[in-house]
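User: My collaborator sent over this chain with a note saying "see what the structure looks like." That's all I know about it. Can you take a look?
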Amino acid sequence: MKSSAIPLIIAALSAPAFAVELNDSAPVDMKTVLSGLKQFKEQNETGLRTRRNTAYKQITTAAASNEAASAFWTNAVLAVQFAGVDHQATAVKDWLKGEGEGLKTKEGANAARLHLVWLGLTIQHAAGAETKQLLPAVIDFTRQIEADEAAMGRLGEQIEKNKAAGGAKKPATGKALAEETHAKKMHDNILKTAVSSSVVVQSLQIAEILGDAGKKKKRGDDSASSGWEPVPGSVTGIYNAIILPEFRETRDPRLMDYWDMMLRKGQESLYAGMPAFEERQWTQVNKPLMQWSRAQDLLILGLKNRAVTEMYNLIKSQPLHPESARWIAQLEQIVAPAPSLDPTSLVPGSVAPPAAIPAATAPGNPPTAIVVPPKPAGTR
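Assistant: Without extra context I'll predict from the sequence alone. Here is the result:
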């Protein structure tokens, strides 16, 4: 009986239901619907604003000191990673005595504070604050990150010394090495995590408030569509996405400070005994790329003669650079005289279109210079 019933069921399901008649409901008062939707929208915006302001206040309060930041981050970990677990449970105690110890160190606590500072700035950006308003705080933040990087560099050297001194073979040295390693691991994990992925954002449930500004880009994505960098420890990303575009738009001379800093950092990265191929990569490839980008920014600042001189000298000194052919083509566009124009062929009041110079291949987001030909006589 069962086997004979199956075809009947299939036939019934596949048959068109012509006998079923669908009727619409009574007419809808569209004005009432629109009025209700407006009210719901206002309620939603008010609720979102309240959540954002509450979270922002909590975050900035916790970012006031290393101690407050460490405690706030620890509580967030317990709320997210150990949700529903008694804080006296063995798993919680093991984390507090193990990985959690890294948050008690000055390095781990400072990383938590810096992450919270950047999260607060990200919330402001997502809420609509203009970049020019946030720029002083963003620049100050990069200085704090750079100071932190220097401190972590010294810690890394100390870890290597302790390893060379015997590490676990010597109790005192082994204990110091374990503490330093915990501190560095916790520090790096915190500052290399995008703000939207942090335990703080998860515990406060505010990921949607951050929008695209808090999301980490996919590998290979160099776009800066959100005009923001989600990873607090990425100084290069912060400059490329936020600071440099603003400097270029306003023709800020501090553009040169950035390139001088990057060139200095690159030079300082060289060390005795460095593999020859790594040193060549810097001196023969990466350094010239930075120098070309620096020259392009000189062009943006209106210093055309300096830009052309530096570009020409760079091409002359680096004839075998992988980008040399493209550099030559770009410089030709800059120095070549504009084609003669027949004034009668122009629409009254019009000007020739600008000639765009292709962007250079450089770390991060390269500058793009625009050279505008002089206006024909008689135009305004």
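A starting point for your reply to your collaborator: The chain has two domains: 44-250, 255-335.
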